[in-house]
């Protein structure tokens, strides 16, 4: 059965396992059958129609939503993939009630994971999946009030569950809702004799996004993923890279005092590549000044996406000191003499030329 | 419009107070449409009245589209038993429909002092708002301070308020607005 769309292009599309009662072939459907359309509710099959859509002759199964009489049409070929299923049997429904009345584990606290998981359960989990959403969000609401999105999701799930219970047990929806809440919130002193609840629906595990953890105390190069690329960082190179960065900063401090924040931004942008060059490429023999400043080799293709994330973080971190240097008077009174001293030192020495620097 | 119909004798002062509270809660005109007799053959052997059967067999009153009618009875009500047993019944409403019934039998004693009468009226109003909320497509709410919280819940306060929570109020207002258009 088709799942929700993937979060990333690299991630494979989720495929859910077929549940009990799911309709695999549209030819099994007859007029008057009652089926459950995921996220829509209980529908009644009213017939099969032939329609021309975008120049194609399509055979559509026509359904009427029982709740409000809305028409739902599904191409015959897509019936198995949309997750159309039979209304839950009495036995399964009894299991659902035992599940609702049972103790609940701690709810998932990461709302993004929870929200997506609940959305999947509503689509592909069958009646037990809907009950899981209701119970999970109900358990969470005891800890704290639900945010608006989840409150709506809870209300929708409850609506779907109540309607299916009503159809399955042949009772009015008002009574079905009392059954559900009697199991969820039993009156004081009520004890149920519960059977072991049915196994919860297992949703496909999605690979979590790889997070780069930057060591606050380290030099910040561990998180670049250089080990994955087979690049070993030599101690001296890293130090040289740092030195280059410091030098760059010092030069910028002198200019930055005049240029202000624009210079700070430019410094942040140039500082990160300095580190990258030192780490990735073996130092080429310095022949000409212009060549030395350019990156010797194009970075390997595989490293490109990871590097795009890292320098941005690195640049952010370096922006703060750069701003301090750019506004010495505002930043701290102690920093002012230091910056002035550095400017003097730089003025004595010829400033190292930078990539794309000024030409005289 | 909300129309109240009494199946047993209720104090006119209580009905008057209820009319005012329902008008404030839903912003809809509310009136007392008179008394009706309890239909025969709805009472079970244990003396309770089948709520579902009562609403189908009670003598109808004249209604126009979007009108809601609330029957008030002193008789205890019952519901069919579910997979885990029979839930306690304070009232019953046809979800999204036009008819609802509430029972006075489960309310705490009315008393004679002004404070106890006021508390009793508040509790009556809560049950009435709860039943009419179901008629406007509201489900039960997990918020124990909301009038849509189940009446048998152990989390309910001893003297619960008769207000709807923000979510339920907005939903009912949306439904009422749609119905008017």
Short descriptors:
heterodimer; A: 360 residues; Methane Monooxygenase Hydroxylase, Chain G, domain 1; Thrombin, subunit H; 3 domains; 5-stranded antiparallel β-sheet; disordered C terminus; B: 181 residues; alpha/beta; Collagenase (Catalytic Domain)
How would you sum up this structure, described in words?
The complex is a heterodimer of chains A (360) and B (181). With 360 residues, chain A is α+β, with helices and mostly antiparallel strands. Chain A has three domains: 1-22 and 83-209, CarD-like, C-terminal domain (Methane Monooxygenase Hydroxylase, Chain G, domain 1, Up-down Bundle); 26-82, Thrombin, subunit H; 222-348, no CATH class. Chain A has twelve helices and five strands. Chain A has helices at residues 79-82, 90-101, 111-124, 126-143, 148-169, 173-184, 235-259, 261-280, 289-293, 304-326, 328-331, 335-348; strands spanning 34-37, 41-53, 56-65, 71-75, 85-86. The longest helix of chain A is centred in the last third of the chain and has 25 residues, at 235-259. Chain B is α/β, with parallel strands linked by helices and 181 residues long. Chain B has one domain (2-180): Collagenase (Catalytic Domain) (3-Layer(aba) Sandwich), CATH 3.40.390. Helix content of chain B is 33%, strand content 16%. Chain B has helices at residues 12-26, 51-57, 114-135, 166-180; strands at 2-6, 30-35, 49-50, 68-73, 77-78, 91-93, 99-103. Chain B has a five-stranded mixed β-sheet with strand order 2-1-4-7-6, sandwiched between helices. In chain B, β1 (2-6), α1 (12-26) and β2 form a beta-alpha-beta unit. In chain B, α1 (12-26) crosses α3. The relative contact order of chain B is 0.16. The model of chain B has no long low-confidence stretch (mean pLDDT 90). The interface between A and B is medium-sized, with 34 and 27 residues.
